[in-house]
């Protein structure tokens, strides 16, 4: 899907080379939404539902951010840029209640073209009893890899996603999603992704993805 | 992921060859959940959020059910069979509010080994502005194809899912997800799936999936 979400534009406003994007939302847009608090909230910061595993990893990555090699990406539920759009629409990955769905934070390393997502999987992501739904896993892979490309290449569309499910991921567990751009050919971005346990000993999922920048001579639809 | 969810067990209780599964949940299990009404609700029936496109298709498929060639699968948010499990857990595809997320119904044709899902995509499934998130699409592909195999083969795990995204799916639109078992080799089920517009003129997505029945000599984990 097109990676043109304004939430990402906002999220990336602090990244190198994105200084032309405003760091805070314009005032008039806020009036579109029912809850200013909700609109302004950065969902990638710790909340009471986060367990010690994700808090520990979060602290470790925040430490890595101190020398500028890594950047944390803020994350919002609503768009605040495209003020003409549907106010009911919400980013799918932020549409579940706190602690019930995707609790996550993204960290980007520009030099290594890597994006890491720390994910705590809530109980509303269930597929098989006690395990995360394969579609929820696919969602986080698409989001993490797509964000990785977006930071480098701007708007892209997911053209292909090929996932090998190695082991089921238990509900409530924290996992680390690693994504890296392997190759760029013209408008095509080839990305690999894997999901591992916090101790790195368990490989849950592997995936490859192809993203394509829209042809500027054609409609994005 | 393992397709062993009790919601599916319940859903499939009326299907041929599944008569040994009770058609209604056992009494004691209901006490585990906060809302009996919620626990008992069949989410695959029309509700006020359904638009005319999905209602029309629903009626057409219900007509096809009259001669027994097609069966509608009921669908629940919670498990009611595995009473020892986590009462907070919810089926991912039923975890969003009415009309906001996945509004869908599954129909199965046993002779043709086909499963059709009618999906109305709510505004909380957003990826790119105005379009359904690639992960939400993957979720419905995994669910539809997995259910198709489950009806035939029982518990299976998604081993691979390979998706080609052809065109973005607009939020609020109704699409038809077609899934079919192409081949069975031992414990392996090869399934194809596509997503098309209601008028069948637009191909949005194509996918192939491999499901594997757990080796009875090994743990399902």
Describe the protein's topology.
Two copies of one chain form a homodimer.
Chain A: H1 6-11, H2 27-30, H3 36-40, H4 52-64, E1 71-73, E2 102-109, E3 114-121, H5 134-153, E4 157-165, E5 174-185, E6 188-197, E7 203-212
Antiparallel strand pairs in A: 1-2, 2-3, 3-5, 4-7, 5-6, 6-7
Structure, described:
The structure is a homodimer of 221-residue chains. Helices cover 22% and strands 27% of the residues of chain A. Chain A has one domain: Thiol Ester Dehydrase, Chain A (Roll). With 221 residues, chain A is an alpha+beta fold. Chain A has a seven-stranded antiparallel sheet with strand order 1-2-3-5-6-7-4, sandwiched between helices. The first copy, chain A, has helices spanning 6-11, 27-30, 36-40, 52-64, 134-153, and strands spanning 71-73, 102-109, 114-121, 157-165, 174-185, 188-197, 203-212. In chain A, strand 6 (188-197) and strand 7 form a beta hairpin. At the A-B interface, helix 5 and strand 4 of A face helix 5 and strand 4 of B.
Task: Give a concise summary.
2 copies of one chain form a homodimer. Chain A is α+β, with helices and mostly antiparallel strands and 221 residues long.
Mass-distribution shape of chain A: globular
Number of helices of chain A: 5
Mean pLDDT of chain A: 84
Any idea what the radius of gyration of chain A is?
17 Å
Largest interface: A-B, 55 and 55 residues
Strand coverage percent of chain A: 25-35%
For the termini of chain A, the CA-CA separation is 10 Å
Q: Return residue spans of chain A where pLDDT drops below 50 for at least 5 consecutive residues.
A: 1-34
CATH architecture type of chain A? Roll
CATH C-level label of chain A: Alpha Beta
| Helix and strand element order of chain A | HHHHEEEHEEEE
Tally of distinct domains of chain A: 1
Q: Which percent bin holds the helix content of chain A?
A: 10-25%
Strand adjacency order, main sheet of chain A: 1-2-3-5-6-7-4
**Please, what is the CATH homologous superfamily of chain A?**
Hotdog Thioesterase
Report the sheet with the most strands of chain A, covering strand number, pairing sense and barrel closure.
Answer: 7 strands, antiparallel
Number of strands of chain A: 7
CATH topology of chain A, by name, is Thiol Ester Dehydrase, Chain A
Query: Assembly state here?
Result: homodimer
Q: Structural class, judged by helices and strands of chain A?
A: alpha+beta
